[in-house]
């Protein structure tokens, strides 16, 4: 009788484990199907527009930046992704009085997919929409990598989540797609969101995934270009760091480089992009970055220099990480 009971317990345990494994495989397959809608071709098509001369280098508050925010807005409208502010109002106004002296009124662009089970918990995916404008000699700084690459990556990630939502596989938690202005002049757009007008309470914000330059290869990695720098993933939540590593191992297998995550790194990149305004409010962050290159802040940062296959893989990594954060049972734990 004892042997039979033991056998039945073992059988139930094996069946339960098998069922759990099958469910995980199904979940992974669903996520992968939507990740595959993020393509190099679509990223390239958008970036050749977004980083074109028409946008005049997207300097904060200038006409080219206004064209840029309207381009982003039109992409969200075309994909049926709503604004969290009000119908067709995708702009969070950032007044000139908040910006550095000499700059005009500007705006963040926001879009939103509401969670199906935990709508009050919000994941924020961010990138800055501005760049440095036109040089004194008249050359346009197109900013294809900085941060056109992050901008179009968010648009593709948002579209993938919207496709999932249409199919009844929308995220359990809400996702805010946040394109911030004024990064190049001092992280003003993200600071305005966190310090002045958080559309959703910061206490309900589970994490921030920030994308700033993910379309190029730096000199250090020319021989092994299947890489990405990650900054901040372990600063506030070891659980987020472990999750990030596990997602990469399962889906994209990039070589993560944590050089710039070192507190003693002289570049201090942890403090130099928009994720920092969330981190200072005890919100776990990951900053995705390909490192600097000879075209950084130069007119030569053009869309023809982008490696679109790498941009596709990196955007898919961020989508998978966001998918897990938005759909796991418990929100990520703060250390």
UniProtKB/TrEMBL annotation:
InterPro entries: EF_Hand_1_Ca_BS, M28_fam, Peptidase_M28. Pfam families: Peptidase_M28 (PF04389). Residues 108-320 form the Peptidase M28 domain. It comes from the Bacteria. This is M28 family metallopeptidase. The lineage of its organism: Bacteria, Pseudomonadati, Bacteroidota, Flavobacteriia, Flavobacteriales.
